[in-house]
Amino acid sequence: MTYDIRRGVSLYSFQNDTFLGRMTLEDCIRTCAEMGAMGIEIVGEQTFWGWPEVGVADEKIEEWHGLMAKYGTVPVAHDFMLDYKRYKGQKMPFDEQVASVRKDIDFGARLGMKFIRSLVSLEPEVLVAAAPYAEEKGIKILLEVHAPLHFDHPWILRHAEAYDKAGTDALGFLPDMGVFLYRYPRVWKERFIRNGVPSDAADFIEQSFNDRRLAEYVVNDVIEKWGPGPQMGMVETLRHNGAFSPKRMLDFIPRIHNIHAKFYEMTEDCVEFSIPYDEVFEVLRKGGYKGYICSEYEGNRWVEDAQEVESLEQVRRQQHMFCNLLGETMPKALVA
């Protein structure tokens, strides 16, 4: 089956650098282009000051398009939020939720995006109601399939059924590769130990995850042996993560249009420590996936207490791995 897997980066990966003022928007886009990762994904609130409460001036949108043209990059997705818990004691009214999604559809269209990412917690009825407007604007709304949810979860199946019933191509999925966590991340364990988790407790929790033990049993074991304390925070991660199979994407490929290549630690050998990207790419090729896979570095929060966050190097290593998996010529910027 033919496939067309393209490399991209979510600028979320550079959040530490942009927040601390070490990188401008142009720096981020130029860096991606030098790596040959031409697809650019953003989180609106991170990239554009004032979004969504104040709005974004036309000159900032023009600057964005100018940078896309300058570096030959492609707008891929705007990751939007929906503040449905804005009002104390009540959920945001349905019509107001739909109006909020329409606002982000407009913003995505202004940026030249083909997709906008929806948080997994949004009800399918909200997205179905917004779908006709998305179609008018040439936008697809993609629900992020994110741990602890997965493609066999009833909530995701409910969304899939609603999309099919609506008969629209404007709704789809954006899987986060953190769903396929086959090994407990080393940077998680090290951070929890620094936070005070006894080393033997950390070893036990790590091994329990890797052995696929039922999370509830592990929680009980930890309580009995080590009692309350920071180890409870570590063992709770077992409830929210799992080693689901990348093969489950195959049934959903027709509605998968973008991918978050979540990663926590790229080793010096350019291999992700916890997520089996060789299996991921094998599935994408088999399914005939056509779209971007965008680096999404999330190891920063697990190391920033102990060392300088090296977002650029981590993204470089992942893009290096992507080039190898795709058999692409390695850009100079990806050679160590």
Task: Walk me through the structure.
This protein is of the alpha/beta class and 336 residues long. The chain folds into 2 domains: 4-181 and 244-334, TIM Barrel, CATH 3.20.20.150; 186-236, no CATH class. It has 14 helices and 8 strands. The protein has helices spanning 15-19, 25-34, 44-47, 58-71, 94-111, 124-137, 154-166, 186-194, 199-210, 215-226, 231-236, 277-287, 300-303, 311-326, and strands at 4-10, 39-43, 74-79, 115-118, 140-145, 171-175, 258-263, 290-297. The protein has an 8-stranded parallel beta sheet with strand order 6-5-4-3-2-1-8-7. α5 links the parallel β3 (74-79) and β4. α2 packs parallel to α4. 41% of the residues are buried. The mean pLDDT is 97.
